[in-house]
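Researcher: I'm comparing several assemblies side by side, and this is the next one on my list. It has 472 residues spread over two chains. Same procedure as the others: predict the full complex and return the structure.
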Amino acid sequence: MSPHRLALTGIGLYARSRTLPLTLALLAGTCAFAAEAAHRTDDVQRAPGWSAPVVALAPLLAAALIGASLYAPSEELDRTAVRPWWPRRLVHLLALSVLACAPTALTVPGDGPAFVAAASLRTLLGCVGVTAAAAVLVGARLSWLPAFCCVGAVHLASGGVRGWAVTVWAWPTRPGQEAGAWLAAGAVFVLGTALHAARGPRPESPRAQGPHRPS
Amino acid sequence: MSTIRVSGLRVRHRRTVALDAVDLDLGPGVHGLLGPNGAGKTSLIRVLATVAQPSAGQVEILGEDVGEPARRGPVRARLGYLPQEFGYYPRFTVREFVAYVAWLKDIPAADVPAAVDLAVRRVGLGDRADAKVRTLSGGMIRRVGIAQAIVNEPDVLLLDEPTAGLDPEQRVEFRALLRELGARATVLVSTHLVEDVAAACTEVTLLDAGRVAYRGTPASLSAVGEASGPDGIGDSPIERGYTAALRAHRAPLEPTR
């Protein structure tokens, strides 16, 4: 199918309505940034601080891009769609999450320390979950903010704290292999994705913010 | 034959009651929905468009109870809706935006180009079909909104302030389109412009404070205005009828002095 014809199909129009081509380009840029930063972690002992941008910043940026793509300017009309929205919302979020995860999983382990890749993946999943839930609660355009606040606050609060509980609540800061951190990030991802699929982003026009929102 | 049947409808927005005990039966034709700001016109249109749910009451559209989620899909396929603010996608052309709504309405892909062309031509935007929506004037964007609402040849068409931003010539053309659509569909038009109702509607419903204050035809509403005598407020019989009907509805509610 030619690009012009694809652009007029339902899927093509949906992708453009959510600015998915731009989102994909920016996600590719973020992944390139992450890969470049991961290469610099080769000598972790010489520059221990280098893992921070890869583990925290790149997943946060990717999650913010995914969250922004959930915004629909014409959500009042979207709600009159004949087919239910939840499968589209689910596929949208999962597809972008996989696309953001794949470069990290495929490129980093061969070149850099495996724990950086594992921690990046886990942080990405957790941040996408927080961002998806935030889109439901505060709207897609501000959905990046809670994830940035959450990760920032955890980084500040978890320094020097010991014990099993910290491996769960401080999941964005933990080393890649810790089961508790994976469990927490995975649960956040599943809950955020399910909430977003079921409810959709919060309407952002005041008139549409009534108490009842049939899907 | 009723295509829209509403009984005991109640809609609340937090602590405010937007609609209370509303009963309506609407059939094919053009129905004007009049009322002051905050009367509940948009709330009623949004409930009928299945984008908001009532707190109580029953809404039946085209014989289907839209309170049941499984029945909304078939109704939506036969329903057109123009919200007051429809928040178009700025990167889309007129053709793409209307095609997007055709996709939402589940129109078969092979029929979409012809349906889009027809809808765009009916609102007089045939020569601007490939212009980006963001480059159009406010009146043209309103016409894009009307085009998306009629792309599926709806049996029920709900228009919230459709003539806002249209110039006088466009309003006259739009009234002709309304009459054409009303010949086969049930068209409900919410507006503040009583002259649009006088010119294009077959029936009129007046809402006030969430209740139906008056139901009749534009001619009967004008007759109410004529009967109000020289004390009536308004420059035309239907305007005087509008204010007289509102006052008559409010009179029993006002405290005795």
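Model: For your comparison table: Chain B is about 40% helix and 25% strand.
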